[in-house]
Structure formats: C-alpha cells, structure tokens
C-alpha cells in the first residue's frame, strides 16, 4: 500500500499544475477522483497531435499531453453548473481529505463549491486553490498561463542568447516549467497541511499562485538582483556565477562542462592539455574566471573542438570533472542510466493495449510508488465511484446520465 493510501483526493483541476499535483498524490497511493465536464473533460484531452495510437496505428481520443499528468486517477463526469451536479460534488467533498481546483478566483463560489462552503460540511478538508496570481492582489482575477507567467515572472529575461549574439532574445523553457513547479509546491503544501491536521488541527485553504512560484524559483538569480540592484541579463547557456559552466563545441557536436570548483578546473585544464590555465592569475579562482570569462571561454572553445563529445565525456569523467552530452529525447531514453532507473514504463490501456508513461522519480524504500492504472478514459469510473463512495443505486446514476448531469 502506498504512503498516502489512506487518503481520498477530489481533483477538480484541469490542464497541468493541478493535475500534476494530483498525479503525485496518486502515485503515492492516494485515491484520486478526477471530476471532469461531461462530453469534453479536461482541456488537455484535445491538446494534440500527438494522440495515443491504438493497436492498428490509428489515433485514439487520448492526447499525449493529457496522458502525462493523469495516471492512477479515476475519471468521473459531473456537470456541476447544475444543482444536481453541485450536490454530487459536495457529497464527494464531504468524504474526501483533499480537494484541488484551479478555477479563477471566486469561480466556484457561484456553485457553492468554494472553500468556505465545503468547509462547513467537512471541516477537515484540505482545499488547494491554484491560480495564475493568487487569491489577493490587483491581478487576482486575471487568468494565468505558464508562458505568460514565464515572461511576467522574470524567467524569460534570463533565458535565451545574450544581446548582441545572433538569435538573441527572450526564450521560454521548453516545457511548462512554471506549471510543473507549481504542482510540486502544491503537493508540498498539501502534505504540510496534512501533517498539521494529523497533529490535531483541522483542514485549511491553500492559496497557490503560478507567479509566486515562478518568482520563488528564480533562486540565485533573484538574489543576484536583490543583493546588487542590477537585473541579471541573458547569458545563453552560461552561468552568471560559475565559469566554465556551459556548452562547448566538439569535433562532432557539443557537450556541457560544469566546473564547480577550482580543483575541478585544474583537472579540466590538464585533460585539455592546457595545465598553465590553472595557475594563470586571470583564471586561478572562480572569482577570477567570472571576471575574465570573455578571455577564458574563447580559449576553451578553441581547445574543445579537437576531440569528439564521447572522448571529452570519457576523459573528463575519469578525471572527476562533471560533464555530459546534449541528448535529444530519443538519446535520453536510450541512455543506460535512464534505462537502469526504469524511467520509461508502460501500463495497460483500454484503447491502445498499452500506454507509455514516464516513471515517478520518487523512490521510497518502504512504501514505493505503485502504478495502478493508466490515465483514465473520460468518465471511465463514474458509475463505480458514485456507487462505492456515495452509495448511489445504478438506476439513480443512469437517471443522472440520461438527464445530462453525468
């Protein structure tokens, strides 16, 4: 049994940040009931191509995007714009430990599904709201999407080629990183609220905002600004505080060199056939290398082009200098370490036979992650959940379905 197998989560969220948190909780054993709109469901079900293919190579209705964040859940369709649907959600919330939602601020109050309304029927409910800008402030009622938040939240001012370089300009991260990080922070907040409840406290409302998370995750770059008053600029793949710590060309491509201290730099200089660099008064310490990066980086680039990527990686690994190739996803999933860690898995799927998944990175010795079921089809578990959790008769459920509530 998973570490959270004693918990029930009502997941009213769509797209990525909320479903990501729900999937983490589900992987850890929680029962996660995903409530979706009848007919369409989670927006990401239609966010394709690509779509999952069936045994005949034909597209199914399941978009790859949706499949990335909804494993181990049960799908129930409920139209809670209707009073009957609202009552069903209230009854499910009364029997749940956690609720996750990412509607606009105040959006669920009109249906009596906001925190204060549900707290009245379940004081121990942990209610996690995820929005673009939080429940307060001048932007609270605005919709927020990952790409927009990456720009507004400062990340894109740091990502991309530096001014003056060919192709210079702001670039977003290649995955919806702010959504993912918000899902992770939301999971941490939920677990903290559970700990408080387990110590005798009640439930509580969690206010998570994509913008807050994006600003918090600027980490050292935020502190670089706050301690100097100077906004950091785009450096491409270079690091603002460490040199050399970036990509370099090789005889057959590129590789990444991440020198974290002066001892590693000395070892790198030896492998590069330039031992004098380690004692050069311009490069002997990281502080000096940062100050003289404009001199050092071209020298390193001139040296790295004489060996292949594989040669650099092999020789530097033997010397204890962190480095690595720049893989595409095919190369990454073929990497022996990725395979050894079992990061690609498959689960049985009703339409495709099997569906590929990316494994959870969480490794627990006593309560390991369990992969119980593939991301569900829309409404796949409606009858089963309403019968098991709410005790509804099959005929009542059929009546709801006939009337369009389910």
3D structure, described in words:
This is CoA transferase. It holds the Pfam family CoA_transf_3. One of its GO terms (molecular function) is transferase activity. Keywords: Transferase. The protein is an alpha/beta fold and 406 residues long. The protein has 2 domains: 273 residues, 3-Layer(aba) Sandwich (Rossmann fold), CATH 3.40.50; 83 residues, formyl-coa transferase, domain 3. The chain is built from 16 helices and 13 strands. Strands 5-2-1-6-7-8 form a 6-stranded parallel sheet, sandwiched between helices. The protein has a 3-stranded antiparallel sheet with strand order 9-10-11, covered by helices on one side. Helix 1 crosses helix 6 and helix 6 crosses helix 7. It is elongated and about 80 Å long. It starts with 7 loop residues before the first strand and ends with a helix.
Multimerization state: single chain
As for the CATH topology of the largest domain, it is: Rossmann fold
Number of strands: 13
Q: Can you tell me the CATH architecture of the largest domain?
A: 3-Layer(aba) Sandwich
Distance between the termini: 31 Å
Whole-number total of structural domains? 2
CATH superfamily membership of the largest domain: Crotonobetainyl-coa:carnitine coa-transferase, domain 1
Helix content: 25-40%
Low confidence ranges: none
* Strand line-up across the major sheet: 5-2-1-6-7-8
Helix count, per DSSP? 16
| Order of helical and strand elements | EHEEEHEHEHEHHEHHEEHHHHEHHEEHH
Structural class comes to alpha/beta
* Strand composition percent: 15-25%
* Largest sheet: number of strands, sense, barrel closure: 6 strands, parallel
Radius of gyration, in angstroms, nearest whole number? 25 Å
CATH C-level class of the largest domain is Alpha Beta
Q: Which whole number gives the mean pLDDT?
A: 97
Gross morphology is: elongated
GO molecular function: transferase activity
Keywords: Transferase
Protein name: CoA transferase
Pfam family, one: CoA_transf_3
């Amino acid at each position: 049994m998973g570490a959270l197998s004693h918990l029930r989560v009502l997941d009213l969220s769509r797209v990525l940040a909320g479903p990501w948190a729900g999937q983490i909780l589900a992987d850890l054993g929680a029962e996660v009931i995903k409530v979706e709109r009848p007919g369409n469901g989670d927006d990401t079900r239609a966010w394709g191509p690509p779509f999952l293919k069936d045994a005949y190579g034909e597209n199914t209705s399941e978009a790859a995007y949706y499949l990335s964040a909804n494993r181990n859940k049960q799908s129930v369709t409920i139209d809670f714009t209707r009073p009957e649907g609202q009552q069903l959600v209230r009854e499910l919330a009364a029997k749940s430990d956690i609720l996750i939602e990412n509607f606009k601020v105040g959006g669920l109050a009109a249906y009596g599904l906001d925190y204060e309304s549900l707290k009245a029927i379940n004081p121990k409910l942990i209610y996690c709201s995820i929005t673009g800008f939080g429940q307060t402030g001048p932007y609270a009622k605005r919709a927020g999407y990952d790409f927009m938040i990456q720009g507004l939240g400062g990340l894109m001012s740091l990502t991309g080629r530096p001014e003056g370089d060919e192709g210079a300009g702001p670039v977003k991260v290649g995955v919806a990183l702010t959504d993912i990080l918000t899902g992770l922070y939301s999971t941490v907040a939920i677990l903290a609220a559970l700990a408080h409840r387990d110590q005798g406290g009640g439930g509580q409302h969690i206010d998570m905002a994509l913008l807050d998370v994006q600003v918090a995750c600027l980490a050292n770059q935020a502190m670089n600004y706050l301690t100097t008053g100077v906004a950091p600029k785009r450096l491409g793949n270079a690091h603002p505080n460490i040199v050399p710590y970036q990509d370099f060309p090789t005889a057959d491509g590129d590789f990444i060199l991440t020198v974290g201290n002066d001892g590693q730099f000395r070892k790198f200089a030896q492998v590069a056939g330039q031992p004098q660099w380690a004692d050069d008064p311009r490069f002997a310490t990281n502080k000096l290398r940062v100050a003289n990066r404009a001199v050092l980086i071209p020298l390193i680039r001139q040296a790295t082009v004489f060996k292949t990527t594989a040669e650099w990686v092999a020789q530097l690994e033997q010397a204890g200098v962190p480095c690595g190739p720049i893989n595409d996803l095919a190369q990454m999933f073929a990497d022996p370490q990725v395979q050894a860690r079992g990061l690609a898995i498959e689960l049985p799927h009703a339409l495709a036979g099997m569906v590929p998944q990316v494994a959870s990175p969480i490794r627990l010795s006593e309560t390991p992650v369990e992969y119980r079921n593939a991301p569900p089809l829309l409404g796949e578990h409606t009858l089963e959940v309403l019968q098991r959790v709410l005790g509804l008769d099959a005929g009542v459920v059929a009546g709801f379905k006939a009337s369009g509530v389910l």
